[in-house]
């Protein structure tokens, strides 16, 4: 039913109605439930000394600033493992050999445009025939050759963005500094629960038939809701997932051959792609002038 | 229900017409889809075409500019061509430090060097901290800088095995005390761990060797 003005108003003469409409406030009837008292302000969200709202992107970046590296990382290939003997103590140090091949800065991600600072780094070379046209355009605009691998390395601020097209060699890393290496672990295919989660399996005998390597129960019955809870450990694909090994010491650096030798092992098979960046749990390395990226590609592009 | 000829007397005429149609050869029938039409040749644009008319042409006929092609930049020099086997390079640099003359490598390269240590030989290894270890070489693992030899002996009537990394800077010297009487027929003499084939202690043989060496060197403590 449409709302109607009170009957008394409609009976008023037109001249009176016009004169009333010129008034700033017209008393009109209120509909619905009306509070008897004025609403009180909440006693929790008012007053001085309250913390600033932490759900903004600026606040998120501020929280992250402590753990974000100051400079970019590099893309390397795992070549295999060997050992190095420490000449003083005679101790054998197992090490992984990584090789950096044509690592270049492709583009930047900036706070203003993308919401965060990051360096897009490419490595290797891909035949232009096998590169899609949008990607080819991306490489072309930035003046670099088509790359096999592309990854982003987040950095703290604008100071950590090397010029686009500059190359990152093995001497980007210093002898004795610590790095984090992230790579995909070896894929194990579809694995059972014993191999994948370390379940104990079931008995060989005592009436067990055909379920010696399977999981026991997938959960409670009616009391638990008669359902399998999310995250239940079951058989499935194992391995081939990203793993980060932290705090690996750089033992050798060979800029000419692009070799970086780090202490210990790194996930993944030989030939896998490894991303190495300054370790976040160690003090940041002091960057020397010679470790600065070489801006030689820009010169060749203009020539 | 099929119509009987008596019901439709003129039906026979229809069959005659239909027969004529069927007799006509099928080849003469052609559809548009099968008709061959050569691809039309691209008509060259008239010369001195004013610029404002170009936009009226379909896109495929508009004169193509070379700038539409994506420019591909050449790749920088590759480090993979400089060094194809980084593992070998790291190993070589280590060998140059710990075995500059290549003597230790030749001593254990039993596949190529006939004068090298062979499985079954009795060795005496001296370490930098002064403790020697004697034993029968059960196996030699050739793994570059990680090359090692497995020695077996008996100390205080307890069988002891020790794997020695031969390029370790802690290894001061390796001496061959006694060659095997005849070359072993396998590379790994793990059967020597069984009670039947165990050589037991080799300390007597090594002691005799040391005494003989001292006599030969004229009582000098020099090795």
UniProtKB/TrEMBL annotation, chain A:
Localization terms from the record: Mitochondrion
Q: Which SUPFAM superfamilies match?
A: Translation proteins
Recorded superkingdom: Eukaryota
Q: Name one Pfam family in it.
A: Ribosomal_L3
Q: Tell me, what is an example of a GO biological process annotation in this record?
A: translation
Q: Does the keyword Mitochondrion apply?
A: yes
Please verify whether the record's keywords include Mitochondrion.
yes
- Give the matching InterPro entries: Ribosomal_uL3, Ribosomal_uL3_bac/org-type, Ribosomal_uL3_CS, Transl_B-barrel_sf
Q: Which residues cross the membrane?
A: none
Q: Which GO terms describe its cellular component?
A: mitochondrial large ribosomal subunit
Q: Name one GO molecular function term.
A: structural constituent of ribosome
Q: Which UniProt keywords apply?
A: Mitochondrion, Ribonucleoprotein, Ribosomal protein, Transit peptide
Q: Which Gene3D superfamilies match?
A: 3.30.160.810, Translation factors (2.40.30.10)
Name the family. Answer: Belongs to the universal ribosomal protein uL3 family.
This chain's protein is named Large ribosomal subunit protein uL3m
The source organism is Penicillium angulare
Q: What is the lineage of its organism?
A: Eukaryota, Fungi, Dikarya, Ascomycota, Pezizomycotina
UniProtKB/TrEMBL annotation, chain B:
Q: Name one GO biological process term.
A: translation
| Keywords for the protein's UniProt record, in alphabetical order | Ribonucleoprotein, Ribosomal protein
Keyword Nucleotide-binding annotated: no
Q: Which GO terms describe its molecular function?
A: structural constituent of ribosome
Q: Which Pfam families match?
A: Ribosomal_L19 (PF01245)
Q: Does the keyword Membrane apply?
A: no
Assigned GO CC terms? mitochondrial large ribosomal subunit
Fetch the PANTHER family from UniProt. Answer: LARGE RIBOSOMAL SUBUNIT PROTEIN BL19M, RIBOSOMAL PROTEIN L19
Protein family according to the UniProt entry: Belongs to the bacterial ribosomal protein bL19 family.
Per its record, how is this protein called by name? Ribosomal protein L19
């Amino acid at each position: 039913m449409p709302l109607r003005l009170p009957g008394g108003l409609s009976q008023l003469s037109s001249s009176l109605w016009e004169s009333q409409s010129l008034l700033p406030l017209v008393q009109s009837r209120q509909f619905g439930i009306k509070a008897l008292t004025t609403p009180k302000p909440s006693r929790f969200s008012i007053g001085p000394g309250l913390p600033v709202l932490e759900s903004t992107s600026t606040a998120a970046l501020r929280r992250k600033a402590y753990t974000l590296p100051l400079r970019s990382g590099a893309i390397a290939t795992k070549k295999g493992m060997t050992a190095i003997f420490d000449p003083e103590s005679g101790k054998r140090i197992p090490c992984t050999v990584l090789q950096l091949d044509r690592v270049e800065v492709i583009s930047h991600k900036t706070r203003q445009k993308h919401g965060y600072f990051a360096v897009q780094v490419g490595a290797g070379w891909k035949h232009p025939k096998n590169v899609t046209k949008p990607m080819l355009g991306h490489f072309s605009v930035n003046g670099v050759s088509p790359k096999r691998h592309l990854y982003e390395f987040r950095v703290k601020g604008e100071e950590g963005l090397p010029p686009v097209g500059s190359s990152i060699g093995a001497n980007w890393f210093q002898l004795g500094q610590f790095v984090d290496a992230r790579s995909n672990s070896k894929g194990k295919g579809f694995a059972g629960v014993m191999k994948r989660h370390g379940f104990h399996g079931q008995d060989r005998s005592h009436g067990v038939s055909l379920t010696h390597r399977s999981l026991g129960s997938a959960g409670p019955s009616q009391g638990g809701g008669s359902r399998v809870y999310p995250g239940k450990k079951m058989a499935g694909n194992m391995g081939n997932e990203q793993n980060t090994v932290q705090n690996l010491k750089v033992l050798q650096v060979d800029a000419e051959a692009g070799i970086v030798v780090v202490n210990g092992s790194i996930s993944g098979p030989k030939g896998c792609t490894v991303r190495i960046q300054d370790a976040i749990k160690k003090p940041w390395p002091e960057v020397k002038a010679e470790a600065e990226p070489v801006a030689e590609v820009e010169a060749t592009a203009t020539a | 229900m099929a119509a009987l000829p008596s019901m439709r007397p003129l039906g026979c005429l229809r069959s005659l017409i239909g027969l004529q149609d069927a007799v006509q050869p099928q080849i003469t029938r052609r559809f548009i889809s099968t008709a061959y039409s050569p691809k039309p040749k691209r008509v060259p644009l008239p010369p001195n075409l004013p610029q404002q008319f170009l936009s009226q042409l379909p896109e495929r006929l508009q004169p193509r500019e070379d700038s539409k092609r994506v420019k591909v930049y050449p790749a920088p020099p590759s480090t993979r061509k400089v060094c194809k086997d980084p593992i070998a390079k790291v190993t070589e640099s280590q060998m140059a430090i710990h075995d500059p003359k290549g003597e230790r490598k030749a001593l254990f390269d039993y596949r190529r060097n006939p004068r090298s240590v062979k499985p079954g030989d009795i060795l005496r290894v001296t370490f930098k901290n002064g403790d020697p270890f004697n034993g029968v070489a059960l196996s030699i693992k050739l793994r570059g800088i990680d090359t090692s030899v497995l020695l077996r002996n008996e100390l205080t009537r307890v069988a002891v095995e020790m794997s020695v990394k031969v390029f370790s800077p802690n290894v001061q010297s390796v001496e061959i005390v006694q060659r095997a009487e005849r070359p072993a027929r396998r590379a790994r003499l793990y059967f020597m761990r069984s009670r039947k084939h165990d050589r037991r202690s080799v300390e007597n043989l090594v002691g005799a060797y040391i005494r003989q060496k001292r006599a030969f060197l004229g009582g000098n403590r020099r090795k």
